[in-house]
């Protein structure tokens, strides 16, 4: 498998969603929840830094940060005052045929959930919402792994670490962030980073950015990944967007760096990675993909 190539100047330099970092007030409880209930595998646990990195699939991670006074969870990101996200909404991809079993597993774990059909009578798109122990709003969304609209790193057809009591998640699908200045965000995200604006909703401040070289239509099981950007509001199923989020994206890093340099944003760089503090308090990390981006 190769990553799609992207000629300089064509489309968005963003290739895919690489990971998200959540703030938790009890790291051990977070590790237990995200391994035993969500089914992620623990990749790295640093008790001194109060950090745990969990693997969603071979290319995507979920990281937990427990904040500690006078100590940075990641010293490299300390100049940007990076924090894990609070009350973030995010979705995991699962096989549609696994949705009923996933709901039964949530029942078995004693977790209340809510189902909403985001599709049409002809093409149902059932999704299940619930909360983690830290107020992050989670969602299970059916994904059609054979859909031709594939992201740079398609979800696997089976969970990385299948277990009888954990949810059969395949990948990260979306993250939703709050921006205090919606109009400014809508102009800045394409200009300063190159995110591809796909659409807005007519009834509320809600913008969707396609995490790939070109804006695409959402819905109907697409495996493509998404950044949702809202103003402060309660969305579907009582979900809130995340504040002071830390989100990782695969990208053509040099292209993004040219943009954020022109924008004059605070940033730190290392080989193959660029971290930027967004004016709304989020920190975005842009990573060179693990495989060659030259298709
Ligand atoms: Fe969602």
TrEMBL record:
- Could you list the residue ranges that cross the membrane? none
Taking every annotated instance into account, which residue ranges of this chain make up the domain VOC?
A: 16-143
Which GO MF terms does the UniProt record name? dioxygenase activity; lyase activity
Signal sequence region: none
Pfam name, any one: Glyoxalase
Keywords from the UniProt entry:
Dioxygenase, Lyase, Oxidoreductase
**Organism domain of life:** Bacteria
InterPro entries tied to this protein: Glyas_Bleomycin-R_OHBP_Dase, Glyas_Fos-R_dOase_dom, GlyoxalaseI/FosfomycinResist, VOC_core
Q: Does the keyword Oxidoreductase apply?
A: yes
The protein here is known as Catechol 2,3-dioxygenase-like lactoylglutathione lyase family enzyme
Which organism is this entry from?
Answer: Deinococcus metalli
């Amino acid at each position: 498998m190769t990553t799609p190539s992207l000629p300089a100047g064509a489309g968005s330099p963003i290739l895919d969603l690489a990971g998200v970092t959540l703030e938790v007030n009890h790291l051990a409880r977070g590790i237990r929840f995200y391994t035993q209930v969500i089914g992620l595998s623990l990749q790295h646990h640093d008790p001194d830094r109060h950090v745990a990195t969990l693997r969603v699939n071979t290319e995507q991670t979920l990281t937990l940060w427990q904040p500690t006074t006078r100590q940075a969870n990641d010293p490299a990101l300390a100049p940007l005052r990076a924090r894990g996200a609070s009350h973030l909404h995010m979705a995991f991809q699962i096989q549609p045929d696994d949705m009923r079993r996933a709901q039964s597993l949530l029942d078995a774990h004693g977790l209340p959930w809510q189902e909403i059909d985001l599709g049409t009578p002809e093409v149902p798109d059932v999704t299940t919402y619930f909360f983690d122990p830290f107020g992050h709003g989670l969602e299970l969304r059916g994904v059609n792994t054979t859909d031709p609209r594939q992201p740079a790193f398609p979800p696997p057809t089976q969970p990385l670490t299948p277990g009888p009591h954990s949810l059969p998640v395949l990948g990260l699908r979306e993250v939703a962030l709050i921006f205090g200045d919606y109009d400014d965000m809508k102009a800045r995200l394409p200009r300063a980073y190159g995110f591809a604006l796909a659409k807005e909703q007519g009834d509320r401040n809600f913008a969707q950015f396609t995490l790939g070289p070109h804006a695409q239509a959402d819905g109907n099981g697409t495996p493509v990944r998404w950044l949702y950007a809202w103003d402060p509001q309660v969305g579907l199923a009582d979900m809130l967007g995340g504040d002071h989020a830390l989100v990782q994206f695969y990208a053509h890093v040099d292209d993004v760096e040219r943009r954020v340099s022109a924008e004059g944003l605070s940033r730190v760089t290392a080989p193959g990675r660029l971290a930027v503090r967004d004016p709304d308090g989020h920190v975005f990390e842009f990573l060179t993909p693990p495989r060659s981006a030259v298709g």
